[in-house]
Structure formats: C-alpha cells, structure tokens
Specification:
This protein is an alpha/beta fold and about 280 residues long. About 45% of the residues lie in helices and about 10% in strands. The protein has one domain: 3-Layer(aba) Sandwich (Uracil-DNA Glycosylase, subunit E). It is globular and about 50 Å long. The C terminus is likely disordered.
C-alpha cells in the first residue's frame, strides 16, 4: 500500500506543531509510526515514557533523530499491536496508536499537572483525529486516565474504554477474569509468544523502511546515529521473562491461599488506575 502524498504532507505539518508543543513543555517529542492514510481504528494512550529506550533528554533526542518511533520497542508494545491486528482490525483495515500528549518524560514526572498538560495537547489531538481517523473510525481510550479525560462534552466522537496494557493494571484484569476462569484459560491457550513475535516482526518491517541505519538487537554507539530495534530473540526473551514472573506470582498466591488468577494477565507497564471494560 502506498502512502497518500497529500495525507503525508499534512501529517508532517501536524508533527512539526506537535514537536513545538513538546519542546515548549520542556519534553522530547516522540513521533508515532508512519501512517499510510486515515485509520479505521485509533487507540489513544497516555504519554510516552523515558527510561528503557532513553535515560536522558539528550539521549532521547538523538535516538528519535536516528528514527526511533513510539510503540515499537517492548514486548508490551507488540502485545498491543497483536491484539489490534488479531481481534480488532479486519483484513486491509488500518489502525493508529497515539498518545494524548507526545512529549517523552520519566514516569515519576508524568502524573504531575497531567490534566493541565493534556489540556494543552487536546487541540492537537482533535486535529490528529480529524486527519488520521476515517469518519466512522472506532476510537479506543486505553486506560482509565485517558477514558476519564475524554469524557467531556466537547470530545466529538464516541469511544470505547479498555484496560491499560500495563502490569500495574493487573488487579483490573484479574477482576475481569473472575468468574470466567475456564473460558480465560481456553483463550490463553489460543495465543502463543511466537504469534506476538511474528506480529512484532511485521510491525518493525513496516516501520523501518524510511529510517536511517536501523539495527536489530544491538545498541549503536559512537557517531553511527543508529538506534536499538529489538530482534526476535530479544522479544522472545522479554516475553518469557514476563510470563515466568506471572507464573511465579500465580504459584505464590496459590500456595498462600490467595486468588491464583490475581496476576494471570498482568504483563505490561504504565497505568495503575485502569478500569475493566470489554471492547465491543
């Protein structure tokens, strides 16, 4: 599929204003993966975090300049991509994952004056939806923070709230599983880590075509201006570490008499106060 030239130009102009907004806030703008055209589904998350892919603002800037993009780094990111592709989109449909505010920051700073920051970013989010979402696009609010913020009279589109994909939202997922343990175990058996890694490979393949010096499974140093892209082996390892932690946590709870399913779906990282809301 080829990128629509008019759409590409308009999106680049919008990105420039997003970058200016992030810099005015003292943050580093983290772009999203390139879209080919308006999407049939848009998932709205919170804000990008520093820490794993870059530890300082200067490192983040050089990494972004080298081509790093949001939602393409961790096993958690690719679990989200997998779920959208497997359970939401039909063949040939497009999706777009974005953050409400797009300046990368450390997690311990993200909660400070969040509403004020979201208010500054809100007009750009509306422009982004006008450009990047089809007229009938499904809008998904990822996590309780975003869902609550978008529950405002002037938000122009209906949306569906879903649980955040963070491990901190484990209690909310556990509540969703309660009473459905058998069907959840059947569902769990229908998905493999290899499925997620295959999706990651496809997502990375699509995102690296226009990037400068992408490297798989290595961290570039010196003046090569290349950035880290996870290899299939990296993602397999990340996934196994997460799954092992879940199993250990579940076994501990079984032995202590606590609910064995309390952490069964707790894999990813970021939004503590998530709600259980099925996507329909």
């Amino acid at each position: 599929m080829r990128i629509d030239g008019g759409f590409h130009t308009a999106y680049r102009k919008l990105e420039e204003r997003m970058k200016a907004r992030a810099e005015a806030d003292g943050d580093v703008f983290l772009p999203n993966p390139e879209l080919l055209g308006p999407a049939h589904y848009v998932l709205i998350c919170m804000e990008p975090s520093l820490g794993r892919w870059a530890r300082t603002a200067d490192q983040a800037r050089s990494t972004v300049e080298a081509g790093f993009r949001n939602f393409l780094f961790s096993i958690e990111d690719f679990i989200l991509h997998f779920c959208v592709r497997r359970y939401l989109c039909e063949s040939e449909q497009r999706y777009h994952i974005t953050d409400l505010s797009k300046g990368a920051m450390l997690v311990n700073r993200a909660g400070r004056e969040r509403i004020e920051r979201y208010n500054r970013w809100y007009p750009l989010l509306l422009e982004e939806l006008d450009l990047c979402a089809t007229a009938s696009a499904g809008i998904v609010a990822v996590g309780n923070v975003v869902s609550q913020y978008l529950t405002r009279p002037d938000f122009p589109r209906p949306f569906t709230p879903v649980i955040h994909y963070s491990s901190l939202a484990g209690p909310a997922r556990s509540a969703g599983v309660a009473g459905r343990e058998d069907s959840f175990q059947a569902f769990r058996g229908s998905v493999s880590l290899e499925d997620v890694v295959a999706t990651a490979e496809e997502a990375l393949k699509g995102s690296t075509r226009a990037l400068r010096n992408p490297r798989r499974g290595v961290v570039a140093t010196g003046e090569e201006s290349a950035y880290y892209l996870p290899s299939a082996t990296d993602l397999q390892l990340q996934g196994k570490v997460r799954i092992d932690a879940i199993v250990r946590s579940s076994c501990t709870r079984c032995e202590s008499g606590k609910n064995p399913h309390e952490r069964i779906v707790a894999i990813p990282e970021t939004d503590a106060d998530a709600t259980v809301q099925p996507l329909s």
